[in-house]
Amino acid sequence: MQTSPNKKQLVIGNWKMNGSSAANAGLLRSLLPVISSLEGVEVALCPPFPYLSTVADLLDDSDVALGAQNLSTELTGAYTGEVGGTMLRDIGCRFVLVGHSERRALYGEDDACVAKKFATALQAGLIPVLCVGETLVQRQSGETQAIVTAQLNAVLNAVGFNDLVKGVIAYEPVWAIGTGETATPEQAQAVHRHIRQWLASQHRAAAADCRILYGGSVKADNAEQLFSQPDIDGGLIGGASLDAMSFAAICSAAQVKPTS
Ligand code: 13P
Fold this sequence. Notes:
Layout: E1 9-14, H1 21-35, E2 41-46, H2 52-58, E3 65-68, H3 85-90, E4 93-98, H4 101-106, H5 111-123, E5 127-132, H6 136-140, H7 144-159, H8 161-164, E6 168-171, H9 185-200, H10 204-209, E7 212-215, H11 223-227, E8 234-237, H12 244-253
Parallel strand pairs: 1-2, 1-8, 2-3, 3-4, 4-5, 5-6, 6-7, 7-8
Helix pairs in contact: 1-12, 5-7, 7-9
1,3-dihydroxyacetonephosphate (13P) binds next to strand 8.
């Protein structure tokens, strides 16, 4: 059981809480001409909320999709300070990150909250990108597969398999995020294979079609090796997505997947 050969790899840039109007415009001015020539890879960018509309305008003539980094558990209503999925869809978002480890660790999002956000994203017509991954302590105590499976099960139990595979899964080991310490291609592939097999135990064909991205210190010089692993279908890129040439090189590394 491996990824379907017909599926395009997907690379998503997560800008986190970085950028400014001027910096974003400069980044896109350098980035878009380079990635417009790439084929066989889908690219999306997730700027912070205040810049979504402006970035949407700047992406208008490109094939690059827009995504948000978070959404409310609720669609609309009296929730001061929250941003609803319907609004994100309205301003042109296609993707939304759900359950990023920074939200889980720093903002107390538990599995139930993440599952609710995943369901709300689908209701709003967005593609949720479900982030899962273990901490260093959990890896060292041999719990990686159990943690990832529990995070997936929480969403499966809330929305069912058919809806789960309408989303994208991103494996982001917490110890590799922003640390410069990337999972080796073998370590990443082992967890991706586990996720694929877990999906296949529910439905074989849908498991092959589901995109599973790797995130955690992906850089221009390690992207190709990671993306060539049989169960890795692209990447979720933090720091390196803020540099036009690095991100373009990462997108380019995702272009061609050797058939295995
Ligand atoms: P880095 O690429 O900076 O490690 O961040 C990964 C990440 O958290 C993407 O969502």
